[in-house]
Amino acid sequence: MTRILDAAVLGAGLAGSSLAKALADKGWETLLLDRQSFPRHKVCGEFLSPESQSTLHALGINESIAGLGHREIERIRIIFENGAEIELSLPGKAWGLSRYALDSALHIAAMQAGARLQTGATVTAVHKADNGYIIHAKQGGKAFTFEARAVISAMGASQRSGLPGNRSSASIKSSYIGVKSHFRGIAMEPVIELYFFRGGYLGLCPIEGGLVNASALLEHETAVHEGKTILAILNGVAKRNPKLSEKLMHAVPVIGSQAAVAPVYLNRKPLAWDQLPLLGDAMTMIPPLCGDGMSMALRSAAICAPLADSYLRGSLSQADWQHTYSKEINLEFKRPLRWGSLLQWLFETPALSRWLPDAARLAPNVAQGLVHATRLKPFRQ
Q: Mean per-residue pLDDT for 250-268?
């Protein structure tokens, strides 16, 4: 007779790894599955906002990542194509930390808690069964099947048709391309810098080891026009903003740190449940100008964990789990997503963005308040 797992978490990114650890901490037999091999570089701003601290504590992972050598960040600096700047303070210390280091630390924490990690395994189908779910997957060309009482999907934004989290892009008018690379030789203050130009923007975030993460969100035509490699694209778009070009003049790329993702669809409404509970980017793609994508992925895991635990203990029905989780996700994410989308629109509209630096200087409290409106509130357990 096949042993049935308590929980299977599909996707070993921030949200999935954190949830797997939380469930294993409660004593549940948990499998953490991902189609990618780790450690790996991923397109990400690599910025953990001050608001993430309460979530890290709630998930019990703050100690696992506090010693990874993160860089502290105190301010946000926005630099426009015409050279104008806006500088805003953060409500606390943010952390600059690479996904390469962070994902690995979370995997170790999950396994130390008792979860089993299986990478390089692609989920091909998920079916409801009498005792939970049957998951079909393949690894190294070989197919395998397993069962779990509860299954949670944290498989990211781009899902194959038929799998939980897949959504048609037919109603979304435009898509973007995300690219990133780490660099040496860039002098950085304790600040994250956002450089805007025609066709997108690029963020510079100091991370561990004296490195700087350069990640860009670009319109498809912009990326295609600038080159066929990630470094060629980054070098090309840097010339669109004089201050960015100067900043990267002596930068040396870290070989192997380059990554790309496409298509990237923004402004998707949160979808907390689609056959299964969804976490992180599977739930919604956060407008990057929220600056809180990593924090929001962690927050979705923190919201889901106690509900999954109650379900496994038999004190919560699946229908109640779905209802409560969907309600809490909407309450947590509705406001920052709405304001983040507004900021995204303001900065991407040339006629309006030209006036933003002057407006921020005339009404600094309004500018600061608008940025704070895109942030999550401290997590309460």
A: 87
> What are the extents of the domains in the chain?
5-171+265-372
User: CA-CA distance, 300 to 302, in Å (whole number)?
Assistant: 5
pTM above 0.85, yes or no: yes
Query: Please, which pLDDT band fits residue 119 given cuts at 50, 70 and 90?
Result: very high
Of 202, 243, 244, give the one whose Cα is nearest residue 223.
Answer: 202
Higher pLDDT, 24 or 280: 24
- Residue 199, phi-psi category: left (phi > 0), alpha (psi -120 to 50), beta (remainder): left
Q: Do 265 and 341 meet the contact criterion of CB atoms below 8 Å apart?
A: no
What's the CA gap between 25 and 68, in Å, rounded? 22
Band (1; pLDDT cuts 50, 70, 90): very low
CA distance 33 to 120: 8
Token digits of residue 344? 């995204």
- Which CATH number applies to 5-171+265-372: 3.50.50.60, 1.20.120.140, 1.10.10.410, 3.30.1300.10? 3.50.50.60
Q: 170 pLDDT band (50/70/90 cuts)?
A: very low
Question: Of the given ranges (72-76, 81-85, 218-222, 251-255), which has the lowest mean pLDDT?
Answer: 81-85
Q: Phi and psi for 238 in degrees, rounded to 5?
A: -60, -30
Calculate Rg over the CA atoms of the chain: 21
Residue 171 has pLDDT above 50, yes or no: no
